Amino acid sequence: MNGNVTYYFGHALTGQGVKHLYKEMMEEAELVYFLQGASTSKGSELLKELGYFYVKQGFAVEWFKHALLEEVVEAVYVKGCNRLYVWASEWDIEPTLLGTKHRVMSFYDCLEDAQLEKIGEQLANAVQERTDWRDKCIAKLSHAIKLHDDWEVVTQSCMNWQALNEQVENLKSEVFQSIVLNKTGERTHRLLGTLTPRGAENTVESITKNISTRLMIKGKPGTGKSSLMKGLADEANARGLDAQIVWCGLDAGSVDMVIIPELNFCIFDSTEPHIFDPQDGRLGDKIFDIGQHCALTEEAELAIAEVRARYKEAMQDAMGYSKRYAEAEYTVRRLLDHCLSASLWREKTASLFERLTK
To answer: 0.85 cut: is pTM over it?
Structure first.
């Protein structure tokens, strides 16, 4: 019987820079393959082949997509045998446990020197262009975060925090009841989404497809959604339950979802830019409304309208820069693809496809 695939984004373009969680996932894995080499489409194809290889053996597999290039996979995590394969060269991660759980495979020697010399100057220009557009995108996202912070200040001044705290305590009682497990609760980390050339995207449907209870938070910016979810994760761990933190793709310090696997439960931010509502026929879908505790004054509404307009303009600019960033990334990969030796690649990758018993 075949396994299944869950999709995540491998990295996100945030207001604080490029965010990824591969270091955290290295702690989670029992075996980590550091695949090192230039950015080529062949690297993504290899990771997809590895994913299918394990799916056909019955394993559940997590695919981590590139933030800009929707068809590109940059890492694969195989659950059950807990193996992580990551194209490591771009992410400033290095093996620290060589000889035990960390293994390195380099693909730089699959590039043909004669071909590289032919495209060297063109490649250097494309790489510099890619860096420039990335930096402009991140700078604009940083500006958007500051505007979002201004928005939050206004809504926070209109919140009934005592009423929210009472609602949250009731939620904890409902979710956890008297459950306490005789083990240490573990914590894992993933990303919810990111800004792409097509706009803000997420993989919520894939992440939650097998979760029976989905709680969708409705509330204005700054009204405590992220803090609420962090508190639920802390409560779960304190009771011996595992918790997965799924981080925001715009603000690197903000949480957008928490999953408690042993309760088959998740809670997530269901407001812009990822609006979700209960699905017909899905009985475990519920709204958790904290917006009811925020009574905006007319003055606050006017202030928010002005900030919202500037925020949306900044996000549109960032999306435009991300498109140019993606175009430069495509150019870099296309140039490098022409420099690969197909025979060396086949020889190098054959050993990765070893048969496993579940």
So the answer is: yes
